[in-house]
Amino acid sequence: MKKVIKLFFYDASYLILENDKIIYVGNRKGNVYKIIIDACMRIKSYIFASINVSFLWHRKLGHISMDILSKLVKNELVKGLPHLAFKKEKLCDACY
Asked: d(Cα 83, Cα 47) in Å, to the nearest integer?
């Protein structure tokens, strides 16, 4: 049986369901829906999609090209930017 994960957001809370069974209930504080990672780690499901880290940095830095990201890493021009291989594998949806 294929696992189907659904999220439902409400004004003050949200639900995570796996195959229509509630597996997590979270709360909203201000404009942020909070999640307790420890609680999620105990759940035997993969709730979070894995996203290529280089594409996360691409998005964080305003959809900058992978070539420029590579130069930033090589010349250590951005504090906290991990030393990753930024390769043009595909275009993200926003840059397509």
From this structure: 27
Taking the CA atoms of residue 69, residue 74, residue 79 and residue 84 in that order, the dihedral angle to the nearest 10 degrees is 60
Chain segment 20-61, per-residue pLDDT in tens: 888 888 888 888 888 776 665 555 444 444 456 788 788 888
Query: What SS3 class is residue 27?
Result: strand
CB atoms within 10 A of CB 57: 20
Q: Give the C-alpha separation, 86 to 52, whole Å.
A: 10
Separation of alpha carbons 66 and 54, rounded Å: 8
Give me the residues paired with residue 33 across strands. 28
Q: What is the pLDDT of residue 43?
A: 56
| Residue ranges per structural domain of the chain | 5-42, 51-96
Structure tokens at 96: 């397509």
0.85 exceeded by the pTM? no
**Beta-carbon contacts of residue 63 (< 8 Å; ≥ 6 apart):** 92, 94, 95
